[in-house]
Specification:
Layout (H helix, E strand, L loop, with lengths): L2 H24 L3 H17 L6 H26 L7 H17 L5 H24 L5 H20 L4 E2 L13 E4 L2 E4 H19 L1 H11 L1 H6 L4 H27 L1 E2 L7 H11 L11 H20 L4 H23 L4
Antiparallel strand pairs: 1-4, 2-3
Helix pairs in contact: 2-12, 3-7, 3-10, 3-11, 3-12, 4-5, 4-6, 4-10, 5-10, 7-8, 8-10, 11-12, 12-13
């Protein structure tokens, strides 16, 4: 091979890599979507039970709560922030809803509204500390993570409230609509509707454009007339409401309100966002990618379990995926526009 031929092949490879880089920069959902499709095909070959309607409905049920929390997490990460209290807010909201009904005797619909209001207030506290006190989001949410989990133990007395002790509305999200062999829970329907709404809101509203602008360059956004403090506060507050809705879905999923769940929800929600192609540096990503990221986590865990892989190696595989996703994001961000 001549020197000229070798140089030509190198230029061709560089050109191909640059084109791929530009495509992934313009369409960050393509990478996660390709991973999801390949994973589904691979696990279907390894175990034919994987692609059954019963198993696929189980995968969707398993990712519903995490996907809802990851939706709120996406809004925050798009602004270059992070929320380590997502799981704590969701679990605490579910405990408050259950105890409003059981201990205070409040009707189900009112308990639900109060639970949503409390979740929203917890998100607003995070937003206030970030925007008014100007504390780093990581420090703020690390602190409120501990506070909310501690209050959770105090309010619940470390006792689980069974679904049979609560009004049927509280566990309604766990009911399912049979579609052939597939079971679609009302919780999954709520989750999908939330994703559809925020997909529209981020793409087609001024608020959504301000969220992206704030995450891309907060100082440039401020100079352009965007009230970045209000945008950040609205994002954390909205995320709190989404976490509370996730808490309601969690009650339906478990048929109870337990204070002993959710220890992994924070990292799982961040994992779903990162795998979905949303940049941890803000300003790039989509909620559609987050939904795909949550499905990737569910598909990998379910597929590896059916393949007989031990739980510790399932976690290893998910962690490896996160490292690959972050490395890919770093590479994509170097694209020259």
């Amino acid at each position: 091979m001549t020197t000229a031929t070798a140089e030509f092949e190198v230029r061709q490879r560089d050109s191909l890599g640059l084109r791929v880089q530009h495509v992934l920069h313009s369409n960050p959902v393509l990478g996660p979507l390709a991973v999801l499709i390949v994973a589904i095909i691979a696990f279907s070959i390894v175990n034919t039970r994987f692609f059954s309607a019963v198993n696929l409905s189980l995968v969707l049920e398993q990712v519903t709560v995490i996907a809802t929390l990851a939706l709120g997490q996406t809004l925050i990460i798009l602004t270059a922030g992070i929320d380590l209290s997502a799981g704590a807010v969701a679990v605490f909201s579910s405990i408050l809803m259950a105890n409003f009904c059981v201990k205070a005797g409040i009707p189900g619909i009112l308990a639900l509204v109060l639970g949503f209001a409390c979740g929203t207030a917890m998100g607003a506290i995070n937003g206030m500390l970030v925007t008014r006190i100007k504390l780093p989001p990581f420090i703020v949410t690390l602190g409120t993570l501990t506070i909310f989990f501690s209050l959770n133990s105090v309010i619940s007395g470390s006792q689980t409230v069974r679904g049979t002790d609560m009004p049927s509305l509280m566990s309604w999200t766990g009911n399912a609509i049979p579609i052939g062999g597939f079971r679609l829970t009302y919780g999954s329907i709520i989750m999908l509707l939330l994703f559809a709404y925020f997909f529209y809101a981020l793409r087609s509203t001024a608020w959504g454009k301000h969220v992206y602008a704030t995450g891309d360059d907060i100082e440039a956004a401020r100079l352009a007339g965007i009230r970045t403090h209000r945008v950040l506060f609205s994002v954390y507050t909205t995320a709190g409401l989404l976490y509370a809705i996730g808490g309601w879905i969690l009650i339906g999923r478990l048929a109870s309100a337990s204070p002993n769940v959710g220890t992994d929800y924070n990292l799982d929600s961040i994992t779903a966002v990162v795998l979905g192609g949303t940049s941890l540096f803000g300003g790039r990503g989509s909620v559609l990618g987050t939904l795909i990221g949550a499905l990737i986590v569910g598909v990998f865990r379910n597929g590896l379990q059916l393949a007989g892989i031990e739980v510790v190696w399932q976690g290893f595989a998910i962690g490896l995926l996160v490292l690959v996703a972050v490395s890919l994001d770093q590479w994509i961000r170097k694209v020259k526009t």
